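Explain my protein.
***
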Amino acid sequence: MFLIVFIAFLYGCATVISKMINYRAAQELGTWNGSLVNYVVASILALALLLFSPYLWSDLQACTKVPVYLYAGGTFGVIAFVLSIVTLRRMKVFQSTILLLAGQLLAGILFDLIVFRGFTWIKFAGVLLVSLGIFWDKKVTAA
């Protein structure tokens, strides 16, 4: 279990580092060109990983059997990427990252509600508490 928690922690660190590098690329190249460079490089890396995967052919066969809507993840990835660049121009990295977390938590609650029919007010209250903390931090640091 520790390994999974550690990997999730590394994922969080990589997300912030990626956000900062991609923001800098957008400053140098523009939002859309920076996005294009990001996704071209990511696509090449994903293809290379796929080609060297021992599960290449079984994975490709599985790709033909999934519902079409599951391919929307890439679309949402691009939308999330562009939105993160736009928000970084207007707020601090810390605030942007915490709001990203709050949005992910809220989306997770909604997904649980829709897919698994599970909902708790405690989880919702936690998201509200994190969001209120951001607004409080912004108000205090602006003074």
